[in-house]
Amino acid sequence: MKTRSIKHRITNNTLIFVTLIVFTSLLPLMSHGQFLRENPRATVQKFAAMLEIINYYYVDTANSADLTEDAIVAMLKELDPHSMYLSKEDVKKANEPLQGNFEGVGIQFQLFHDTILVVAAVPGGPSDKLGILAGDKIITINGEDATGKKISNNYVMERLRGPKNSKVTVGIKRKGRKDIIDYTIVRDKIPLNSVDASFMVSDTIGYIKLTRFARTSLAEVKQALQTLRKSGMKDLILDLRNNSGGYLDVAIDLSDEFLDNDKLIVYTEGMRSPRTNYKSTSRGSFKQGRIIVMVNEGSASASEIVAGAIQDWDRGLILGRRSFGKGLVQRPFNLPDSSVVRLTTARYYTPSGRCIQKPYDNGTEDYYADLLKRFEHGEFVSADSIKFPDSIKYYTPSKRIVYGGGGIMPDVFIPIDTAANSKYYSDLFRKGLLNEYTIDYLDKH
After folding, report:
1. Is the pTM of this model over 0.85?
2. Which one is catalytic: 136, 253, 256, 312?
3. Is 326 a catalytic residue?
4. CATH number (domain holding residue 126)
5. Which residues of 353-392 are buried (b: 16+ CB within 10 A; e: fewer)?
6. pLDDT value of position 423
7. Which of the residues 137, 209, 326, 358 is marked catalytic?
């Protein structure tokens, strides 16, 4: 029976092969690569055929689903650094930081000597309400030992996060007590605030630190602006340092807060995505006061849209260091198994026509090594180390020169704090020795 089945497949394959010979002999002369490019179905069939061959003839067991996922990841890697694949399990994790909340117990934790250490309980969250404290050690979760080498960040999050109103019991070891304290925590929605800080730095100057462009960010900034104005704010410092971005529409709405009516904020354009302009309205609440936007090499995407619009319209000054240079638009495409491909479909351009995206011709590894190269080249300590060709010069309405080529170059350069960023300090930080010493000291005293 087995022999007949194999012989049957070989016969079918032979017929297919002969048919292909006859078919290709009728085609105009073209390369195999050209044929695949002009016939997308042929590419899909080629991939399906390869999976079939592996399933039938490979020496060991092969998982087609895993092979397909690996192939998708490798495929997207060849396109650009920001097109990406998210499995069904990863989609929710990736979206949570930008939704403005997640469901769980409300603690910040760190793994210390194979133990879950509570760094802080989120104010007003379920753990905070029960009296769980910074410095507490979680020894058990739902009666199961939660110590040792088996634990990881994923291990902890999988057990502590969960739907609202569900329960989890943790055993806490607290300094000064010999017994284990059991807490049954009712999970709830935990806010992820985008505004990290807002305060007055002088009688008339307010400061807002924005960490991400999430669904709740605009409302948080508006609330902060209102509070600061009541305190006498006339001018604003908007700190976008190390803000890696978020939603495009939130960046547009935030820019709208500061720009006069009918000003181009940003436009997007791609080979198969026609130009789309995004303009300001009359709704903004801070269109008159002076504004300074702070950026650095960790400011990307949505942060660069806001900084670029402010700079290009001479609305304010940009302070800091050249931003990251991420100006590619990703559009999510849902796949049949609920996984998602975030595919780059267009580029961002500032109002003056500058492309925010830095080059990625030399591959993903070289692309992400760019920041290290900037540091080694001296760009973080001296603006003089940055050379711009005339071809990437642009002009604002007041004839100020601004530069393209990737990222937003600030109007006023601020060097990196070398005392806090020396190689010695970086090694201590990377190895976790600073945290380890601090936690160990607090544990003993």
Report:
1. no
2. 312
3. yes
4. 2.30.42.10
5. ebbbbbebeeeeeebeebeeebeeeebbbebeebeeeeee
6. 67
7. 326
